Amino acid sequence: MAFLASCDHVFFGVIAFIISASIVLVSTKGMSKPITLPPGPPGWPLVGNFFQVARSGKSFFQYVVDMHQKYGPIFTLKMGTRIMIFVCSADLVHEALIEKAQVFASRPAETPTRTIFSCDKFTVNSAVYGSVWRSLRRNMVQGMLSTTRLKEFRNVRVSAMDKLIERIRVEAKANDGVVWVLKNARFAVFCILLSMCFGVEMDEKTIEKIDDLHKTVLITLNARLDDYLPILSPFFSKQRKRVTEVREEQLKTLVPFIKKRKSALANPGSDPTAATFAYLDTLFDLTVEGRKSAPTDTELVTLCSELLNGGTDTTATGLEWAIARIIDNPDIQSKLYNEIKSTVGDRKVDEKDIEKMEYLNAFTKELLRKHPPTYFSLTHAVTQPAKLGGYDIPTNANVEIYLPTISEDPKLWSKPDVFDPERFLSGKEEADITGNKEIKMIPFGAGRRICPGLGMAMIHVNLMVAKMVQEFEWSAIPTQSKIDFSEKLEFTTVMKNTLQAVAKPRT
Ligand code: HEM
Asked: Mean pLDDT highest for which of 42-56, 189-203, 244-258?
């Protein structure tokens, strides 16, 4: 959606005119039984509300908030050929993801670009609800993200945390104490996930190269105008060529690591740096219901990239908002630091300490309430025509769940605008982040498609906050008197002004 803001309005105007003129020729006769979609702004034929959104001058989520105020908790936007249904209330999310969980558990059709990168929906996040999804998800959850498995990767986290602290220390020393928060947090999580995926050692240069490639892939996956208006695809041949190039580059870079891991497994002891276990090991011989053969190398790249994509920017975004909140409220920083001190004394904080830290856990929960790293859950679709809030939901609709209207609903929260970790202490307020007991805040989604990385993400966020606060005292850079909490939509919802902060080593 980010591209909408930069659209050339004149270009759109001309295109819109041509398209609208042609629409007149396309009559509505022959349409099947009328359905009652949720309300929404009237749009133009064929292009729907596309130009209203593009020309509003607002960020996409601001537009969604405006529509929510105007049309209520469920509304429709027609974006070119896509019907997008927005769901913004806890009751309706409960109806969709819990009461009608199975029906709302699918994913919509992919864009042509995403089809290439997902190997035609051969990933956990993109697969339609069915046997492929079940096989891939079961493998990811049981083979990789279970509590036992997560414990096995403890050393990987220890090493990544040491690297993180060292990088911040070096950067701070070279820049009068000033560091970029998001970039460093991203790097640390990326190191962990790369190691978990490929199980082979990589130097910092290689990690940075893969990280750059990973960012290029994410940019390439951004929606384009012709994804909404396929009629315009002849104008996008250059972009399509670029997609193929990026995909080739991705395969060229990552397939050698797959081969290296295969060889390490086939010749035990041949590579002393090889880890005892990696996500790839679960995938080499994976049996997927309805398929005869194991995943190809291309599919393995896709499945590993999914783990990297799912866990990197989401977690790092959480860290950026966390440090911003810590700087904004020194009292919070003191409470976090004092709790760490009283729990671990002078030794380094370890992930085993985290469950004992009540305030840290309350802080992280409040962080995910106030700043869910993705404002929209991944797009859902229904497996068969369904009803939601009394409206019709057709199978070709994208169902978009907007998280902040739930986690900041004044009917569910006291003073929802205020960032206050204390709300979760001594039972003042409660919320089940899995959404199983109630829908009040669901930063990881809810129901069948709930984020399988929830457990790992909570370890990573808690651990990084604890480490960063134990090692450094955080404050605003001298030119910034107040933290600006405005946000912008990138791959996740990051701070509009990327956070720079002063990190003063405590020792
Ligand atoms: C703070 C960090 C994270 C946040 C906020 C987050 C959030 C989400 C959300 C909102 C969804 C969509 C749920 C839905 O469709 O209803 C999701 C799905 C997913 N996440 Fe995460 N996630 C995080 C970390 C991770 C990690 C660490 C991994 C893996 C290592 C991961 C892997 C996935 C996958 C594979 C899916 C697709 C699940 C499916 O379609 O069945 N995420 N995540």
From this structure: 244-258
Q: How far is CA 215 from the centre of its chain?
A: 13
d(CA 126, ligand 1 centre) in Å: 11
Atom of ligand 1 nearest to the CA of 97: 16
Which atom of ligand 1 is found nearest the CA of 144?
Answer: 30
Annotation-wise, does 451 bind a ligand?
A: yes
Q: Please give the biggest Cα pair distance in the chain.
A: 76
Listing DSSP states for 195-248 in one string gives HHHH-S---HHHHHHHHHHHHHHHHHHS--HHHH-GGGGGGGHHHHHHHHHHHH
Region 3-20 average pLDDT: 46
pLDDT tens per residue, range 409-436: 999 999 999 999 999 997 889 989 999 9
Q: Which residue has the higher pLDDT, 399 or 12?
A: 399
What is the third-level CATH fold of 81-505? Cytochrome p450 (1.10.630)
Question: What is the C-alpha separation between 319 and 227, in angstroms, rounded?
Answer: 32
Distances (CA, A) of 314 to 374, 377, 442, 492: 7, 12, 14, 6
Residues with CB under 6 A from ligand 1: 124-125, 137, 306-307, 310-311, 314-315, 318, 373-374, 377-378, 443-445, 449-453, 456-457, 461
Mean pLDDT of all residues in 272-300: 92
pLDDT at 33: 74
DSSP label at residue 406: H
Residue 28 has pLDDT above 80, yes or no: no
3-state helix, strand, coil in the chain (%, to 5): 55, 10, 35
Count other C-beta atoms under 10 Å from residue 218's C-beta. Answer: 17
CA distance 171 to 2: 30
Q: In terms of DSSP bridges, do strands 386-388 and 487-489 run parallel, antiparallel, or are they unpaired? A: unpaired
Mutation test residue for ligand 1: of 451, 461, 465, 492, the one with most atoms within 8 Å of CB = 451
Burial of 271 (0-12, 13-18, 19+ CB in 10 A): middle
> What pLDDT does residue 25 have?
44
pLDDT of residue 15: 53
- Please check whether residue 106 is in contact with residue 380, taking contact to mean a CB–CB distance below 8 angstroms: yes
Model confidence at 12: pLDDT above 90: no
Is 68:402 a contact under the CB 8 Å cutoff?
Answer: yes
Q: List the single range of 187-191, 224-228, 363-367, 499-503 with lowest mean pLDDT.
A: 224-228
CA 451 to centroid of ligand 1, rounded, Å: 4
pTM over 0.85: yes
Nearest CA residue ID for atom 32, ligand 1: 310
Q: Distance between CA atoms of 67 and 88, rounded to whole angstroms?
A: 10
Using the 8-state DSSP alphabet, how is residue 286 labeled? -
Measured in angstroms, how far is the CA atom of residue 163 from the centroid of ligand 1? 25
In the reported structure, the alpha carbon of residue 62 is separated from the centroid of ligand 1 by a whole-number distance in angstroms of 23
